[in-house]
Design goal:
Layout: H1 6-22, H2 29-36, H3 40-46, H4 50-73, H5 79-96, H6 98-105, H7 113-140, H8 149-169, H9 180-191
GO molecular function: DNA-binding transcription factor activity; transcription cis-regulatory region binding
InterPro entries: Homeodomain-like_sf, HTH-type_TetR-like_transc_reg, HTH_TetR, Tet_transcr_reg_TetR-rel_C_sf, Tscrpt_reg_YsiA_C
Keywords: DNA-binding
Length: 195
């Protein structure tokens, strides 16, 4: 219910900016409140603490991200094309929101063990989406039938993740979205049947 309130989204968006610019550990709740244009106490009407903000931020953004990929792939019958759309969307979403790229690629990884576990739970939805594309591609004969699904998923996600991390570490000096085609080509050379 809290997620449907405008201030919730306002605080989440502010948290992305503050965490990206100051780092998670230096991102005080007061800075997030100031960026969101709300009183410090208002934050606690929506979130228990700073960790809750980080997890909620990731849940919100990852949920929207998965929804966008599902919408983009809806009606596409080819698994190869679905994989292309996934790669293209992954890069274009982060290219359009560099602050979010910094948060997901750097700040989420510096968390404590419990926090990492909660973040991994959120990430599972995206990994299941990748699995569905792989399994469907294998069933249709578009992907090699001898693929190890878990390993293939790790290679796809790992490649996308590392490409975005490298872009962030290089201070976003080049066009991330332009890497979709070459990365897709590399991925299908390992996955596609008859290649």
């Amino acid at each position: 219910m809290r997620r449907e309130k405008p201030k919730f989204k306002q605080i989440i968006d502010a948290a992305v900016v503050v965490i990206a610019e100051h780092g998670y550990h230096q991102a005080q709740v007061s800075k997030i409140a100031k960026q969101a244009g709300v009183a410090d106490g208002t934050i606690y009407l929506y979130f228990k603490n700073k960790e809750d903000i980080l997890i909620s931020l990731f849940e919100e953004k990852m949920g929207s991200f998965i929804e966008k990929i599902e919408q983009e792939t809806e009606g596409i019958s080819s698994s190869l094309e679905k994989l292309y759309v996934l790669v293209k969307t992954h890069f274009s979403v982060f290219a359009a929101d560099p602050h979010m790229a910094v948060v997901t690629q750097l700040e989420l990884r510096q968390s404590n063990k419990e926090l990492r576990h909660r973040i991994n739970e959120v990430l599972k939805g995206y990994l299941r989406l990748i699995d569905r594309i792989i399994v469907e591609g294998m069933e249709k004969g578009e992907f090699r039938r001898d693929l190890d699904i878990r390993l293939t998923r790790q290679m796809i996600f790992g490649t996308l993740d590392e490409t975005v991390t490298t872009w962030v570490m290089n201070e976003q000096k080049y066009d991330l979205a332009a890497l979709a085609d070459p990365v897709y080509e590399l991925l299908i050379k390992g996955c596609a049947a008859g290649r």
